Structures are given as C-alpha cells and as structure tokens.
C-alpha cells in the first residue's frame, strides 16, 4: 500500500507539520486498464508482454499510433486501453503485478470489437504465475460484439510481485482481429 502524508493549513496560511495519513474503511483498491493505461511499463501495476513459448514473457514496445498509442508485439499483436488483438506467432498478455499480499477478485467481459470478423476465432485465458485460473482448462472463445462473455475469479490469494496475466492466444495468422477486454481487479488488503 502507498504511504501518504497530510498537513493542515489555517486561514492565515500557517501550516502544521506533516503526519502519516491513516487508512479509513472505504472502497477496496480497484485496478482496470480503462483508467490506468499509459506508455510506461509497470505504471499502476500494469505491464504489457508477449511469449513465443508460453512460459517466458518479454515486454512489448510502446507505439504512438492510433488515438492514444498502444503496446506493439510480434506481427499485429497489440494492446490498447481496453482493446487488444492477437499476434500470429506469440501470446499477447496484459499483466497485472501485485503490489502487496492479499486477496483479489477478478471480473470482466470479453467480446470482439465491432470491426472484427465474427467468424474468425480468437481465444483467451487468465493465468496467475504459471497456473491457469480461467477457464479451468484450455482457452475461452471470444464471442462476437454485443454477446459478451462474462467471467469472475473470486478470493485469489496473491503475494507481492505475483503476475496475473490476461492472455490472448496466438492466431497463426497476421490479421487485425481486435477484442474488447477491460479486466477489473479488486484487491482486499492482506494485513
């Protein structure tokens, strides 16, 4: 968890000394690409990666193209704010790195972008470290636009530094087949 310091300032501009802010009960820590996407690897706990062997992941490269930029991988593999598209040769992953120990709930919807061909197959899964956690095995097929696939993973035990990967399977073809996927991660403090 982050550390914040606060101080008071009276009407005459006199400032008190700083003190460490105390946590108060409220909404849990929530992460999602919609509000945390940007051009820096690791910013707000998000990384953008690809793997050619399904085990070793390497970082994607930031590109200033499109409306707001995107992370580019092999071939047409890309990750944008809430969209991504498969690569012909590599798995593409939006990766969340846990900043603290605790419990996480994952949820979201996945569907093809309206520009994608409805009949071309695109597959996804979620991994925690080296373990697949959704679907139970294999890959989930991404449905056409306006028919989203919903998922939930509850009470996932996480440790500081753990990787949660939202993976798009390599397609075997260099084609633009974007999907919409804005995963939501809610962290319950492990303290």
Point out poorly predicted stretches. none
Q: Count of helices?
A: 1
Shape: elongated
Biggest sheet overview:
9 strands, antiparallel
* Number of extended strands: 18
- Please report the distance between the alpha carbons of the first and last residues: 10 Å
- Give me the secondary-structure category: mainly beta
Helix content: under 10%
Structural description of this entry:
The protein starts with a strand and ends with a strand. Helices cover 2% and strands 42% of the residues. The model has no long low-confidence stretch (mean pLDDT 93). Strands 3, 6, 7, 8, 9, 11, 15, 17 and 18 form a 9-stranded antiparallel sheet that branches. Strands 4, 5, 10, 12, 13, 14 and 16 form a 7-stranded antiparallel sheet that branches. It has a two-stranded antiparallel sheet with strand order 1-2. A hairpin with a 3-residue loop joins strand 8 and strand 9. The protein has 191 residues and is mostly beta strands.
Entry keywords:
191 residues; mainly beta; 1 helix
In short:
The chain is 2% helix and 42% strand. It has one helix spanning 33-36, and strands at residues 5-6, 19-20, 29-31, 46-51, 58-59, 61-63, 70-72, 78-79, 83-85, 91-97, 102-112, 123-128, 131-134, 140-141, 149-158, 163-168, 179-181, 184-189.
């Amino acid at each position: 968890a982050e550390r914040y310091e606060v101080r008071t300032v009276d009407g005459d501009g006199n400032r008190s000394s700083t003190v460490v802010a105390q946590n108060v009960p409220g909404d849990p820590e929530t992460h999602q690409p919609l509000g945390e996407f940007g051009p820096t690897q690791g910013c707000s706990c998000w990384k953008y990666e690809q793997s050619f062997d399904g085990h070793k992941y390497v970082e994607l490269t930031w590109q200033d193209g499109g409306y707001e930029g995107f992370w580019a991988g092999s071939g047409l593999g890309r990750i944008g704010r809430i969209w991504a598209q498969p690569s012909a040769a590599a798995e593409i992953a939006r990766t969340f790195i846990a900043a603290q120990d605790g419990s996480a709930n994952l949820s979201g919807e996945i569907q093809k972008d309206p520009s994608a061909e409805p009949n071309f197959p695109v597959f996804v899964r979620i991994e925690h470290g080296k373990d697949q956690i959704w679907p139970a095995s294999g890959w989930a097929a991404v449905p056409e636009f306006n028919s989203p696939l919903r998922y939930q993973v509850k009470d996932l035990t996480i440790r500081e530094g753990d990787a949660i990967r939202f993976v798009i399977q390599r397609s075997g073809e260099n084609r633009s087949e974007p999907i919409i996927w804005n995963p939501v991660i809610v962290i319950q403090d492990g303290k």
